[in-house]
Amino acid sequence: MLGANKVAIWVMTGLLSVTSVFFNLYIFLMSLRNYREKKQWSASETIIVALSAADIFHHVVCYFWMTMDEMDKGCHIVHLQYTLMLLVVFSLKFTIMWDTTFLTFYYSTKLVSTPNHCYTQIQTTILKHVTLAVFVIPLCGLSTCMPMLAVFHEDNYTQVNQDCGVLIPDTYPGKIYEVIYLLLSDVLPGLITTKCCVSISIHLANHLRHMKASTNGAHCPKLGTQLRVIRMALSLVVIFLIFLMVDLYVNYQISVNHENAIVLTFLFISIYTTVTAMVLIYGKKTLWKTLLHDYNVCLDGCACLSFLKVPEQKTKHSIAPAKVKN
């Protein structure tokens, strides 16, 4: 079934890659433009730029691997080239997961105040070294993936539809390492992200309850500038957890049932990075307004498409007790 649809998966991944690269490149270039104007980056912008760069490189390497595999049916290309590209893909996936977790952690620290002084000190220390952290994460991803060359088997013994250069954990050390890799790249950032989601949700519930009590229920409470950030953070968490469950299932099928489903991994992470980029653009109000404006300007060149224009309305927000620098 998978082999019959590999070409369709390749085409779908290509379309998603183009979309994801467009949105992430837009975020990257707009952030660079803002940096040239302001001569500084906020912590959130640093993390978002690092995440966008990792997404772009991941799509380029990932789709190049899929294209080589699709064209090289006889596996004539040197196996080492496939292996090294897969190593880069897995390390970039590690980077994407942890950058997303780091971004969610950042927003949780800005939205939620904790009475635990020790925990607050740890948060402050981490946020003081954001730039260092976004450089350390890719290095950790690469070092975490290097043991694959030693413990994963280079021959593809999947049941059907063999791909060239797929690393299979068919030995006992290989299976142990795969569990460790999934714990470090998927499960651990998933737990941290879930914790941040719970903290933000509790903060939102408490804030709404206090505002409702202060107005005696006279009108619906509003969060103002916090609302967009909270929506973005919670959306990132939901998307992350959905991808986490899918990715763990696909890895289970590959390692336990020996199904050749690695192209599904590439497809799902393409969907994940595309949706994440769109959520990030929405969350950054300046990016969202600029994107809508540029989109409408492009449609102005063709009168017949004017019905597709999106209205650029200025929303009036009520003053919130605390503002988040987004």
TrEMBL record:
TM stretches of this protein: 7-29, 41-66, 86-109, 130-152, 187-208, 229-250, 262-283
GO cellular component: membrane
Topological relation to the membrane, as annotated: Multi-pass membrane protein
Keyword Cell membrane among record annotations: no
Subcellular location: Membrane
Name of protein: Taste receptor type 2
Source domain of life: Eukaryota
Annotated family: Belongs to the G-protein coupled receptor T2R family.
Molecular-function GO terms, alphabetical: bitter taste receptor activity; G protein-coupled receptor activity
Organism: Scomber scombrus (Atlantic mackerel)
Pfam families, A to Z: TAS2R
InterPro entries registered for this protein in UniProt: TAS2R
Record has Lipoprotein as a keyword: no
Keyword terms, alphabetized: G-protein coupled receptor, Membrane, Receptor, Sensory transduction, Taste, Transducer, Transmembrane, Transmembrane helix
Coiled coil residues, start to end: none
